[in-house]
Every structure is written in structure tokens, then in C-alpha cells.
Amino acid sequence: MTAREWPFWMSPVSYWQPAHFPETAWAGHAPFAFWLMDVLGPRSIAELGSHNGFSTFVFAEAAKRLELGTNIDAVDSWEGDEHIGFYGDEVYGRVAEIAARDYPDSVRLRRGYFADVRSEIADASVDLLHIDGRHFYDDVLEDVTMWRSSVRDGGVILFHDIAVTERGFGVWRVWEELSAQHPSFSFAHSYGLGVLAVGEVSDPRLRALFDADDETADRIRGDYERLGQAVTDRVLLEPVPAQLAALVDSESWRLTRPLRVVWQSLKRKRS
Ligand SMILES: C[S@@+](CC[C@H](N)C(=O)[O-])C[C@H]1O[C@@H](n2cnc3c(N)ncnc32)[C@H](O)[C@@H]1O
């Protein structure tokens, strides 16, 4: 059997699956995130917006499996915002439980506002910055302006939701401005992901990504959209066991029990 020849933008890592599947709009970017972790090998990640922890745990899972020793600062007020809605303390509780159990050496949850936490992260110390907080133009611009200096030369900034133009979302506009000035690559699936180079990127595969011609870029987008769809489907299926559990506990399930007993005994007689 001949080994598969991988195009530069993929490797077996692109096929890895996340270990956790909480509700998220980010699911389709997990395969690319795994690949990016492999080629960038970040020692330090700062994430602005963790919510249920999906993206945080994708980075953490990759760091664990690749043995990168990455430190991940996940920053969030864990109170929600106008776009995703406001939520209760139980969300932080669930994320903290998984982080402490599965990623105690890598994930550090910093509960607070992005602007307040910025001074706790040294300048030029971050290899990968992920911006996924509030999505109005002014907010994203403020986040990137304030946090840009935390990223070292050769690092990468990810922007989620660059493909959303409704509901006052303005990430796309910030993205249009920045991607015109720096090496970049963009995906349109799963609400869009922008990948922006900070300074000189050393890895040849990353450089090739930023330099991809239109035809290659289309193939890259097609491959990661296809791989991402499988993860999105898995996230959508995740609530099913919880719904089934609720059904089994429900009054109607209890009331229809005699019918199920009769049905089972009829089936046994027929077999
Ligand atoms: C879209 S969610 C993050 C989604 C997450 N990356 C994922 O993988 O599903 C945005 C989060 O940013 C948080 N947030 C928004 N603005 C913030 C701010 N200025 N400071 C701290 N947290 C903020 C919200 O609480 C929310 O949990």
C-alpha cells in the first residue's frame, strides 16, 4: 500500500476529532485548527471569547496530543453578550470542570473583560490570538487594537464570524481592512474564519497558505468545509442523549409504559 500524498494544507491531524462537543457556531473550524496547531506549534494562545469552551478545548486537545506544552489563556466574562445572549453561571461551571479535569496543565480560564485582562498578558508573548467576543465593528476593532501587541512577530490572529453581515455584525468589515494590509487566508463556512499573519511567518506550509492562488485557495476551502461539516453534524447530534433522557423522565413516557410492555411481549411471541 502506498502512503497517501498530502497536499501542503492537510495532514492526518486535519482528521482528528474534538474530545468535547458543547453547543457552538465554531464547530466547522476544528479540522483547520488542528492543522494550524501542528504547523504553528504555539507555546502560548490567548483566546477572547470561550463561552461553552468549544474552541478552547479544540486548541487544548491538539496541544495535548501533539505534546506542545501550550499555555492557553481563555478570556471571557462568562456572562454572554447581545449576539449570543446572556447566560448563567452554570456555563462557566461546566467549562471549568472540563478544563480542570482534562487540561489542567494547559488551560487557564481568566474570567473577566478583555480590556481588564490585557495587562496580565505580556507584549509579544502570544503565538496564536483568537478573537471571538462581541461582534460589532467597534468591539472587534477595540479587541484587535488592544491585543495586537500581545502577539509575537511570526504569530497568527484568528477572527471568527468574518462571513456574517446581518444583525449588526461587523467582523467582516474589520477583516476587509486588515486582510488588505497583511498576509491572510479566509474560510466562509461555519460563519467564516479569518487567518491573519503577524509579521514574518516562518513555517513554509503557513506561508504557502497565505500565498495560495485562487484555484488552490478554493481547494483548501473545499477540503476544510467538508471536514468541518462532519464536526458540525456531531455537535448538532450531541444534545440528543439529553433530550432522550428528558423524554424517559417525562410524564408521557411513564403513562405510555403499559403500551410498550404489550408491544414488547407481542414482538417476543412473533419471534
Ligand atoms: C461567540 S462566544 C465565543 C464562542 C466560542 N469561541 C466557541 O468556540 O463557541 C463570545 C463570548 O465572548 C464573551 N464576551 C463578549 N465580549 C466580551 C468582553 N468584552 N469581555 C469578556 N468576554 C466577552 C461572551 O461572554 C461570550 O461567551
Q: Which structural traits does this protein have?
A:
271 residues, alpha/beta, Rossmann fold, two-stranded antiparallel ribbon, binds S-adenosylmethionine
Give an overview in words.
The chain is built from eleven helices and nine strands. By secondary structure, it is of the alpha/beta class. The protein has two domains: 12-237, 3-Layer(aba) Sandwich (Rossmann fold), CATH 3.40.50; 240-271. The strands form two sheets. The chain has a seven-stranded mixed β-sheet with strand order 5-2-1-6-7-9-8, with helices on both faces. Helix 5 links the parallel strand 6 (126-131) and strand 7. The longest helix is centred in the C-terminal third of the chain and has 24 residues, at 214-237. The model has no long low-confidence stretch (mean pLDDT 91). S-adenosylmethionine binds next to helix 2 and strand 3.
Give the SSE layout.
Layout: H1 30-40, E1 44-48, H2 54-66, E2 71-76, E3 80-81, E4 85-86, H3 89-102, E5 107-111, H4 114-117, E6 126-131, H5 137-147, E7 151-160, H6 171-179, E8 184-187, E9 193-197, H7 204-211, H8 214-237, H9 239-249, H10 251-255, H11 257-270
Helix pairs in contact: 1-2
The structure holds S-adenosylmethionine.
* Residues in helix, %: 40-55%
Side by side, the strands of the main sheet go 5-2-1-6-7-9-8
Q: Please state the structural category.
A: alpha/beta
Note the total helix count: 11
What name does the CATH topology of the largest domain carry? Rossmann fold
The total beta strand count reads 9
Shape: globular
Strand content: 15-25%
Mean of residue pLDDT values = 91
List low-pLDDT spans.
none
CATH architecture of the largest domain: 3-Layer(aba) Sandwich
Name of the level-1 CATH class of the largest domain: Alpha Beta
